[in-house]
Specification:
By secondary structure, the protein is an alpha/beta fold. The protein has two domains: 179 residues, FAD/NAD(P)-binding domain, CATH 3.50.50.60; 117 residues, FAD/NAD(P)-binding domain (3-Layer(bba) Sandwich), CATH 3.50.50. The strands form five sheets. Strands 1, 2, 5, 6, 7, 8 and 19 form a seven-stranded mixed beta sheet that branches. A five-stranded parallel beta sheet has the order 10-17-11-12-13. A three-stranded antiparallel beta sheet has the order 14-15-16. A hairpin with a 5-residue loop joins β15 and β16. Bound molecules: NADP nicotinamide-adenine-dinucleotide phosphate. NADP nicotinamide-adenine-dinucleotide phosphate binds next to α5.
């Protein structure tokens, strides 16, 4: 039986692994198939303290992982499909294995939101993406759109200007939600245009089933206009990866894990949670890492108090 089982592999999970490893608890981390979390699809991270020249998201994750490994954290790959937290031992099932533990730290993060319309499913990967870092280079010299008005959308749009000839931000309101610095950068970039008060109603396909444009509806006039483009990137927010915990721990109405703030305890003894699966407000690498640290200390103290 594991002392500490960590589910997830982003900054929260890896920081929890580092702290529990340094406490000699030999944590086992179940990484998931797409290990590393959202930083793996981020380019330059400029706001993680300690890197005055910035750091690439995947490099930051790799360094965190190596640091945890150095102190004895162990890693296995697999998607957790089911958990059992109603009685001891706490159990997490992957397709191939069942892992039992005295404590569990959940840090499964969040995933990008989609519009969930039929044409999106059909053209996903054929011109529609939610990861400019992964797919931006396919659109060299082409025209692309980004949906959303928050920091993610603007970050994607700014990154895409490295490749695309034009980037149009389609936003459902007439003002952006993004931080001032990101807005200033986007407004100053000559390759970026804006379609305000607009929603994508439909993605349009070419004869070869490649994206050729979108139908955009003006929400004030309800007029629908065809807008040609070669690619669309979604930047409309996130959904917590907590489906497997439904019925096992308390979640809020949006699926985020409820913890005993400012601690990281869930409603189940021995189960702790950290990172974007809990936090729908800050959602930063640094805040996720900080919560991971807190969850490790909470788990360590719980093991001590319970003499486990
Ligand atoms: P967000 O702030 O929630 O923004 C989501 C955007 O998508 C909003 O503009 C929203 O419109 C729009 N939207 C949501 N659902 C939509 C739908 N169904 N159709 C069309 N538009 C829709 O999400 P985020 O940009 O992912 O940012 C999340 C957090 O991470 C924020 O705290 C942000 O500051 C942080 N972040 C920071 C950085 C950075 O510092 N470099 C980078 C990325 C993210 P409304 O505005 O009308 O609601």
């Amino acid at each position: 039986m594991e002392n500490v089982l960590i589910i997830g592999s982003g900054p929260a999970a890896l920081t929890a692994a580092l702290y529990t490893a340094r406490a000699n608890l030999e944590p086992l981390v179940i990484e998931g198939i797409d290990a590393g979390g959202q930083l793996m699809t981020t380019t330059e991270v400029e706001n993680y303290p300690g890197f005055h020249d910035g750091v690439m998201g995947p490099d930051l994750i790799e360094n965190m992982r190596k640091q945890a490994e150095k102190f004895g954290a162990r890693f296995v790959s697999g998607n957790v499909s089911k958990v059992q937290f109603k009685e001891l031992p706490l159990t997490a099932h992957t397709d191939d294995n069942a892992y039992t533990a005295k404590t569990v730290i959940i840090s499964t993060g969040a995933r990008p939101k989609k519009l969930d319309i039929e044409s999106e499913k059909r053209l996903w990967g054929y011109g529609i993406s939610s990861c400019a870092t992964c797919d931006g280079a396919f659109f060299r010299g082409k025209e692309v759109c980004v949906i959303g008005g928050g920091d993610s959308a603007l970050e994607e749009a700014l990154f895409l200007t490295r490749f695309a000839s034009k980037v149009t931000i389609i936003h459902r309101r007439d003002e952006l939600r993004a931080s001032k610095i990101m807005q200033d950068r986007a407004f100053a970039n000559k390759k970026i245009a804006f379609l305000w008060d607009s929603l994508v109603d439909e993605y349009l396909a070419s004869d070869k089933n490649l994206l050729r444009g979108v139908n955009v509806r003006n929400v004030k006039t309800n007029v629908i206009t065809e807008y040609p483009c070669d690619g669309v990137f979604l930047g409309i927010g996130h959904i917590p990866n907590t489906d497997i915990f439904k019925g096992q721990i308390d979640l809020d109405e949006n699926g985020y894990i409820i913890t005993r703030e400012p601690r990281t305890h869930t409603n189940i003894e021995g189960v702790f949670a950290a990172g974007d699966a809990v936090d729908h407000i800050y959602r930063q690498a640094i805040t996720a890492a900080a919560m991971g640290c807190k969850s490790a200390i909470d788990a360590e103290r719980y093991l001590g108090e319970m003499n486990l």
